[in-house]
Design goal:
heterodimer; A: 247 residues; alpha+beta; Ubiquitin-like (UB roll); Fumarate Reductase Iron-sulfur Protein, Chain B, domain 2; 2 domains; two-stranded antiparallel ribbon; 9 helices; 36% helix; 11% strand; elongated; B: 228 residues; mainly alpha; globular; binds protoporphyrin IX containing FE; binds iron/sulfur cluster; binds FE2/S2 (inorganic) cluster
Chain lengths: 247, 228
């Protein structure tokens, strides 16, 4: 199939950047979206141009690196997938495809489609952990009984891969789905309850400081999240924070 | 610390938005109950409505509630404005191609615009009736009560502007309907009140509320203008 790509090009974080148009030919419908990008980049390199910088790593939907806003949607059309799991059969011959970086004040563009998501790391550093004794006497985690339902919910929350699609798709660039998944995952387990209060306060504080927007409960994040993280987690975060700030 | 997190943090803004929004939903029900008396015809309807209006401006309990309502509207509007500004600044560079309708409802993305329409409506509405009732030059009915009834009827039956006022009122109620089609259930989510069993019920109640309450409000000026 032959396609027209409209891609955001930006030399560095200072550059203003703009959309550029690139035609690509003979794309197989069986290619993944990233393979199609590889074909484009080979073309660009062969003709002496700068290849398009984009983030990717595992190419199997587990690392969360492949941030691309494709045709107006985070990770493109299709539900429950990352960009690397999107295939060219989702498009038609002759289509024009818009490819843009995640847009958020808290995710500044580094180059082309690559954005800096270290704001997520700082939110995690603010409280997305449990403090355990690592002196050699660490208690076996399985020694503490956990109700099956809580374990399942904690696990569902833990499947968040930190891709940032929730931020990219939210009209407010809000990180609440991500932060709530991390708060929930730990608040549901006995090991995490000890620090639940400080965790909720500190992670929300860091989230606010990073410049993410607020939640308007539009639900767009839940729809676009490749891991199906539920809005239930945001409600749980709202409860955890209310508890922490009133007690 | 506890104090600033309950005022300034992102989540606190949402709690206040939700609490004031839900209180305003209660206020709407109370207000509607009063307005529906405008369907009662004749001198009897006039006297009853004015009696009710007097009760609403003099009863001490209602007075307290009305102050809470004023504060709620002001707080809700300021908080809504702050949220909208903050949310816009969180995305300084926009997308060239954004398919927002693929993953969210129009009303949920436009609460700020809908709220602004409501604010303009509330201010003009208060100038037209609330101000008249409290400080305007207003006649009295056979029972000696301030005759708000005649003011309301004359407003919507006005030969030149009555139709415009009626349509503006109906359009404002449409904005209320959209605001609440998202807002009602959203407020519960903001407060963390989410439950596998009850949330679907809250969503259904919210939908019915957003449909029926504005519809009933809008029916009144339509009735006055075209039927009364
Ligand atoms: C009778 C009048 C009103 C009622 C019953 C009402 C009700 C509500 C409710 C229940 C919510 C949901 C709260 C939440 O998501 O937690 C809401 C949200 C909102 N309201 Fe109102 N409201 C009214 C008037 C206004 C006015 C006058 C404005 C402003 C200028 C306004 C602006 C907003 C905004 C911006 C939001 C969304 C905030 C966000 O989550 O991003 N509302 N309203
Ligand atoms: S919540 Fe979903 S969309 Fe957001 S970072 Fe985690 S996996 Fe990605
Ligand atoms: S490259 Fe790892 S999730 Fe797509």
């Amino acid at each position: 199939m032959n396609l027209t790509l409209k891609i955001w090009r930006q030399k560095n974080s200072k550059d203003k950047g703009k959309m550029e148009t690139y035609p690509v030919k003979d794309i197989s419908p069986d290619m993944s979206f990233l393979e199609m990008m590889d074909v484009l980049n080979n073309q660009l390199i062969e003709s002496g141009q700068d290849p398009v910088a984009f983030d990717h790593d595992c190419r199997e939907g587990i690392c969360g690196m492949c941030s691309m806003f494709i045709n107006g949607e985070a990770h493109g059309p299709g539900r429950g997938i990352t960009t690397c799991q999107l295939h060219m059969r989702s498009f038609k011959d002759g289509d024009t495809i818009y490819i843009e970086p995640w847009r958020a004040a808290a995710f500044p563009v580094i180059k082309d489609l690559v954005v800096d998501r270290s704001s997520f790391d700082r939110v995690i550093q603010a409280g997305g952990y449990v403090s355990v004794n690592t002196s050699g006497n660490t208690q076996d985690a399985n020694a503490i009984p956990v109700p099956k339902e809580d374990a399942d919910k904690a696990f569902d929350a833990a499947t968040c891969i930190g891709c940032g699609a929730c931020v990219a798709t939210c009209k407010n660039s809000s990180a609440m789905l991500f932060v709530s998944a991390k708060i929930s995952q730990l608040a549901l387990l006995p090991q995490g309850k000890v620090e639940a209060k400080q965790r909720a306060l500190n992670m929300v504080k860091q989230m606010d400081e990073e410049g993410f927007g607020n939640c308007s409960n539009t639900g767009a994040c839940e729809v676009e999240c490749p891991k199906g993280i539920s809005l239930e987690n945001i409600a749980r975060m709202n409860r955890e924070y209310l508890k922490a700030s009133t007690s | 610390m506890a104090q600033s997190v309950l005022l300034k943090s992102s989540l606190a803004k949402k709690y206040w938005m939700a609490l004031t929004g839900l209180f305003l939903c209660l206020f709407l029900v109370g207000h509607l109950a009063g307005n529906l008396q405008l369907f009662i015809g004749g001198i009897e309807g006039q006297l009853q409505f004015n009696e009710y209006a007097k009760f609403m401006t003099t009863n001490p309990l209602v007075k307290i509630l009305s102050y809470v309502t004023y504060i709620s509207i002001i707080f809700h509007a300021i908080d809504g404005l702050l949220l909208t500004i903050k949310n816009k600044s969180a995305r300084p560079v926009k997308y060239h191609n954004e398919k927002a309708s693929a993953n969210s409802a129009w009303a949920s993305r436009n609460m700020g615009i809908l709220g602004t329409i409501l604010l303009v409506f509330i201010i003009t509405h208060m100038m037209n009736f609330w101000y008249e009732m409290h400080w305007g030059e207003i006649g009295v009915d056979a029972n000696g009560n301030k005759d708000l009834h005649t003011i309301v009827i004359a407003f919507f039956k006005d030969a030149s502007m009555g139709l415009v006022f009626t349509l503006a009122y109906v359009l404002s109620m449409l904005a209320v309907a959209f605001h609440l089609s998202h807002g009602f259930q959203s407020a519960f989510q903001s407060l963390g009140l989410r439950h596998e069993k009850y949330t679907p019920i809250i969503q259904k109640i919210g939908f019915a509320f957003a449909l029926l309450v504005p519809l009933a409000f809008a029916a009144i000026p339509l009735y006055i203008h075209f039927v009364y």
